[in-house]
Amino acid sequence: MEESGASNEAQKAGCLRATLARLGLAAFSLLITFALLEGFARLIFARQQHQAGQSEAVRLYRQDDRLEWSLVPNGRMTTVTDDGEVLIEINSHGLRDREYDYEKPENTFRILILGDSFTEAMQVNLEDTYHARLERRLNEELGAATGLRFEVISGGVAGYGVTREMIFYEEEGRRYQPDLVLMAFYMGNDVRDDHPALAQEEPFPGIYRRQFFQIGEDGELEPLVQAADESLAPGAAQAQAQAGSLVRRIDAWLYGHSRLYFYVRPFLSEQVPFIRRMLYAIGFVQSPAPVLPRYSDTDTEVIEEAWALEEALIARLRRDVEADGATYAIIIIPDALQIQPEMLREKYPLFYPALLESMDLEKPDRALMGILNRQGIPYLRLYPAFVEYRTETGETLYGSHGHWTVAGHRLAADLIYEWLVRERLVPDGEG
């Protein structure tokens, strides 16, 4: 009996060792599999970064001690977009526009437009941009009546938010001696671009967004220096800054340090509804559907801080402009999704169209208009006219690149001209 018991014990021990060995082998195999997949993901990531850095368009940008980045003076390239072949030429002052001297000629009314890639407008030829069209129409319809030459200068640079537009005006824009400064505020990302916890850290390969402002205890803007961590994947710092619970901190850490997780997580959370709901239940994501934060029916503390910062930045830029004797006004440029929400079908096919019911597409506009109304700043909101035009004609106003097509620029130019005349923001020869 004792021998039989010992034999059973030995047999059990042997089974346990075999089970542990199999579990160890399985764990080792999984570890090797994940390591190989992580290595493969890192190779893909590195290749994408290299390709982005080698693209011809990226070479039109340079690091800038004052502005962080700017366009390369006299840069030139040709590209193909939805509207066909596009010639892009940068003038000697680093603007995607024709040549303008800093010194304003006599009998000239000069308009400077501050903005981002919508104003830079590399998706269409220069003559088709809204600012070039606006300049032509002002001269054709008001030049003779006023005896003035109208100039509309584009100060747009991709990736700029109000922070960099303000710095551009203080360092460079005011040298053009404008009579009217228009800030083209893009609803898609300008708020995000100005807040350190939301902004894309690396707008161009090797160029980092480090200069931010915060509201000090006295209510005034003060510089906030951001040290970029180049080891993190794009967007990782934002995720970490917004992480609250332990689960979200783990999520943020993985997103920042694992390239495999960097690719797999967005796919699972944004393309598979039942996984999205499961992640929402355990706190990995903030909503059961991939609603863009700017259109969510609730605001996080970070979003509220971002809008408060935006109000302070807009106020400071206004003071700068008015101190120079010019008028300051704002054009509110709609996000592509606000005008062509069917774009969501391509990005989130399994969530569409129910996703639209969770989005308040006019919410960011109301927030910005509240700021402008409080400060008494004239503004033109393009959204209603764009929606009406799109509904009536069905014409594509935003291309696959997310920016205006030639038709979008044409409509914007006409609306801006009519608004400038109606609000007497430009001389019209009648008063």
A few lines on this structure:
The protein is of the alpha/beta class and 431 residues long. The protein has helices spanning 2-54, 117-120, 130-146, 162-171, 190-193, 236-242, 246-257, 259-271, 273-281, 301-323, 336-339, 343-347, 354-357, 363-375, 383-393, 406-422; strands at 61-64, 68-71, 76-81, 84-89, 108-114, 149-154, 180-186, 211-215, 221-225, 327-333, 379-381. The protein has two domains: 1-54; 58-230 and 267-422, Rossmann fold.
Helix and strand topology:
Elements: H1 2-54, E1 61-64, E2 68-71, E3 76-81, E4 84-89, E5 108-114, H2 117-120, H3 130-146, E6 149-154, H4 162-171, E7 180-186, H5 190-193, E8 211-215, E9 221-225, H6 236-242, H7 246-257, H8 259-271, H9 273-281, H10 301-323, E10 327-333, H11 336-339, H12 343-347, H13 354-357, H14 363-375, E11 379-381, H15 383-393, H16 406-422
Parallel strand pairs: 5-6, 5-7, 7-10, 10-11
Antiparallel strand pairs: 1-2, 3-4, 8-9
Helix pairs in contact: 1-8, 3-16, 4-10, 6-7, 7-8, 8-9
